[in-house]
Amino acid sequence: MAWTAGRAAYALGSKADEARVVDALGRSFPAVVERPAAATGVYLDTFDGGLRKAGLTLIESAAAGRREWILQTAGGETLGSIPPVPSAVGGSAPEEHGLAARAADFPPGPFRDRVAPALGLRRLAQVARFRLRRRSIRILDERGKTVARASIERAQAGAPGDAAPRRRVRPVLVLEPLRGYAAAARRVDRFLRERCGLEPAEPERFRRILAAAGRPVPGEGGVAADAAPRAPERGLRADEALRRILRAQLDVIEANARGTRDDLDSEFLHDFRVAVRRTRSALSQLRGVLPDDDVRRFRKRFKRLGAETGPLRDLDVYLLKMPGYRAALDAGAAEALDPLEALLHRRRREAHAALARVLDSDRYRKLVRAWRGYLDAEPAGETAEGARPVERVAEERIGRTAARMLERGAAIGDDSPGEELHALRIDGKKLRYLLEFFAPLFDADEIRKTVKALKRLQDVLGDFNDLEVQQDSLRGFAGELERSPDADAATLLAVGRLVEKLAERQAAERARFRERFARFASTANRRRLAKLFPVPAEDPAP
Amino acid sequence: MRVLAVYNLKGGVGKTATAVNLAWLSARSGARTLLWDLDPQGAATFYLRVRAKVKGGVRKLVREKRPLSKAIRASDYPGLDVLPADFSYRRFDLELDAEKKPKKRIARLIRPLARRYDHVWLDCAPSISLVSDGVFRAADALLVPTIPTTLSLRTLDQLHAHLRDEGGGAPRVLPFFSMVDRRKSLHREIVDDREAGPWPFLRATVPYSSTVERMGGHREPVGVFAPGSDAAAAYEALWTEAMAALGSLWGWVPRLLPGGRRYF
């Protein structure tokens, strides 16, 4: 038995219908009809529906002249409420996004503990607004104890930007079972269906409101629900499969450009960059599938775009790491990092302005338009490689990339230079993308095991590389601080100490490499790779 | 999850009224709240209109043959649930004694509820026993309603001495004056002199009040049937002060949201 049986909703027709049901309930059960209550609410969630995916609903409520934030389960059970959380300053986002707080803006307590994992680094934004009028009927037992609650809900819904919610939501009666009184709820449910002839309706208020407001449920349906099928299937021509993959990446690029431009949160840029990198990786790893004359220009243009997003992402990462940097030092030294953080914020503002200019430029608009046009148009030319079944092409390319990785990794010894680990990391990334692109063509379980082994290796390589880059950057920032008047010796010392700490950690990652690589190169994993992705021996290298 | 117990070695000090009203305020603050009525008399259960009956009795609860969650009932108030009393609770001590680590048993029984509740309030029977020792182990804090008389202060000394002897993670003790009758000079003197005593009392006091007595007729928290009364205000002040006092321990202070009605 579930902790609380879910709520049920029943569709109501006219006002007369409502009166009839209230009357019938009152006649058949001991009941108290409560005063109607009216309130307005705004649903909040992240761009990617983080709360939704965690089974949570957050409402900014305004009732009886007071505002509060209410957290509920998707089933409508209230988990807690707090005064509205103001969002911290920063972010040049326009008002129209209806932006609200990030996890870090919440006061400590159980409310934050519940929402923070679902928000991650994302910022809350308005999803829809609504006005709700609710009349509750408490069903009692013979001792006067409430055993079920039936509420008639009338609502209007609207988009975040609307002055007032105006779209009518079809009225419903919601039956809320109470813990320990399931039998009573079942009696009322039977009564409503059989005696009142009511039909079931969507049980989640959130979905009823969003449907009426004409808004998509965040995190559902993807960025373009009507787009062509995303996943390649076996037997498909390789060039058509690649077009699908590239289209999906372009969808992500377009969906995240606005949030990046308006600086809503750091995840927009992150997702934007990953999609650009995947696009580039697909174009170079699957060279020859599309006519090279067609895509060569695009490859270059995406390379430039990728490079232009780099500086802002780096600064985002350093700012996200600041709390960790401070924690790595002792209290006095941690404070000495303030001038560093201020410098990072200044640089970040500049980097964001530069990227915003790129995203506003004709060059960017033309790139996206031309790329979309190319991917959607009837193919003008084709290659022999592109006409082959996608699974054959995928097997070979993945098999080759994996073989290259195994070879390169085996050659790395304890005194090999860091560049070799870096090169191995890049190979690993390419392999990872290929596996993700083509996962639906292969046995899901085997792919999962392969990706897992790869990921464990990549984690070490990624950290090793990040720590290297961080040390270089921090030394660079220290140089800048040395020339600026805001930083004193304490700051430079603290940065120096931090660089030492990072070097220690990097050495630790390096020590872990051998063991992780050995696992990746284990006989079992090699066999799995060879079986999944056979490379024909006579295949000439491209 | 925070566990708060309302306890006094003496009976008739306004313990159950305190537990019911504070648990109701907890729910109003937005905390998912459970009130466990440990007193076989079942007064808190009665106040909240729930039937004082636990299937299988205390034996099945203590032996973990039936999880606590199966016995829990919703109150009439959103966010406030009740784990009812049962007449078999009179044998609670004997059942605990038959178990290993009897003093840790109550904490162990409550632990699985952490996912479901933010606050668990325990309304304890007036005695020192294995049950109360178990409560002391389980609770983050003890609220001790104390009538301002010399004998009551003495029982508070005894409680502190007992907790010291028990050692270990003793709960924070928050005594407050209850059933205060300002017409009595002894009450006035003791309340006004609270700073002089060895134990710091909360500033909030609950007056001797006919409103509190009428809870039995209404079977509702005072904040429901007499929201403007002195008694309702007193419990609100007590709740707020207790939460602020515990806030330093918890890292955050639960706040009472105005209104108290659920609109969504």
The main sheet of chain B orders its strands as 3-4-2-5-1-6-7-8
Largest sheet of chain B: 8 strands, mixed
Oligomer: heterodimer
Which outline of chain A best applies? Answer: globular
**Gross geometry of chain B:** globular
What's the rounded overall pLDDT mean of chain A? 89
Q: Which runs of chain A of at least 5 residues are low in confidence (pLDDT < 50)? A: 89-94, 222-228
Query: What radius of gyration of chain A results from the CA coordinates?
Result: 29 Å
Number of strands of chain B: 8
β-strand amount of chain B? 5-15%
Straight-line N-to-C gap of chain A: 60 Å
Portion in beta strands of chain A: 15-25%
* Overall pLDDT level of chain B: 92
Write the layout of secondary structure elements.
The complex is a heterodimer of chains A (542) and B (264).
Chain A: E1 8-11, H1 15-28, E2 31-33, E3 37-45, H2 50-53, E4 56-63, E5 66-73, E6 78-82, E7 99-102, H3 110-119, E8 123-140, E9 146-158, E10 167-177, H4 182-195, E11 199-201, H5 205-213, H6 238-261, H7 266-285, H8 292-328, H9 331-335, H10 338-360, H11 362-376, H12 384-387, H13 390-410, H14 418-438, H15 444-483, H16 489-520, H17 523-532
Antiparallel strand pairs in A: 1-10, 1-11, 2-8, 3-4, 3-8, 4-5, 5-6, 7-8, 8-9, 9-10
Helix pairs in contact in A: 6-7, 6-11, 7-8, 8-10, 13-14, 14-15, 15-16
Chain B: E1 2-6, H1 15-28, E2 33-37, H2 43-47, H3 57-62, H4 68-71, E3 73-74, E4 80-83, H5 92-97, H6 105-110, E5 119-123, H7 130-138, E6 141-146, H8 150-166, E7 172-180, H9 185-192, E8 205-207, H10 210-213, H11 215-218, H12 222-225, H13 230-250
Parallel strand pairs in B: 1-5, 1-6, 2-4, 2-5, 6-7, 7-8
Antiparallel strand pairs in B: 3-4
